[in-house]
Amino acid sequence: MTAGTTLPHGSTTAEHELAALQREHGRPLFALLLRLCDGDRQRAEDLLQETLVRAWRHPEALRADAFDSVRPWLLTVARRLAIDARRARQARPPEVGDAILENARVIADHAERAAATLDVRAAVKTLTPQHREVLVLVYFQGASVAEAAETLGIPPGTVKSRAYYALRALRRVLPGYATDLR
Questions:
Q1: Which H, E and C letters describe 24-91, residue by residue?
Q2: For the segment 134-170, what is each residue's pLDDT rounded down to a tens digit?
C-alpha cells in the first residue's frame, strides 16, 4: 500500500489496493461510524477517510497472515477514531452556530449607560431647585406623590405639577432621550 509501481494511466498499485479496500469494506465501516457518530454523515465520512488513510500508512497490518480478513482491524481502527473524536469534542467548549448568535440577548455597553447618566445629571442641574427637588424624590428616590408632598411640605397637586414641568424641561434639554422620559 505504500507508493508502488506505476501502472498505465498514471495510477499506482497502492491507489488500486486502497480503492479495492474501500469497495470491499467501505459500507460496513461507514455503517459502524454512522452509528458511533449519532447519525452525523459528514463526521462518519471524515472518520471513514481517516480509517483508510491509516490502512494506507500501515500496509503491514493489512498483509499480516495472522488473520483471514482485514475487516476486524479496520473496524477496530474506525471505532477507536470515533471514540477519540467524541472525546475531543467533549473536551472543548461546544461550538456556537450563527443561528444561536442571532438569538443571543444583546447586553448594553456600560460606556453608553455611563454617558447617559452624565447627560441626565447635567440636564437635572439646569432645572429650578423646586423642580429638581420633586424630580429627585419621585423619580430617583422612588417616593410616592404623597410622600414627596409630606417631605417638601407642599400639596400633592403641586408635586404632580412640578414633576410634569420638570420632565417637560428635561425633554427639551435631552431630545435623544425623549422616549425614555414619557
A1: HHHHHHHHHHHHHCCCCHHHHHHHHHHHHHHHHHCHHHHCCCCCCCCHHHHHHHHHHHHHHHHHHHHH
A2: 989 998 899 999 999 999 999 999 999 999 999 999 8
User: CA 34 → CA 30, 46, 91, 99, distances in Å?
Assistant: 6, 11, 21, 25
Q: Please list, in sequence order, all residues whose beta carbon lies within 8 angstroms of the beta carbon of residue 58, skipping any fewer than 6 positions away.
A: none
8-state DSSP, 108: P
- Residue closest to 168 by CA, chosen among 128, 141, 119, 115: 128
Q: What is the CA radius of gyration of the chain?
A: 37
Residue 26: all three cell numbers together? 467501505
Instruction: Tell me how far CA of residue 46 lies from CA of 49, 94, 171, in angstroms.
Output: 5, 19, 62
CA distances from 138 to 41, 65, 142, 147 (A): 63, 91, 5, 9
Tens-digit pLDDT profile for residues 68-118? 778 888 899 999 999 999 998 888 876 666 666 666 666 656 787 788 888
CA 34 to chain centre: 26
**Contact between residue 151 and residue 137 where contact means Cβ atoms under 8 Å apart:** yes
Q: 170, 124 in Cβ contact below 8 A?
A: yes
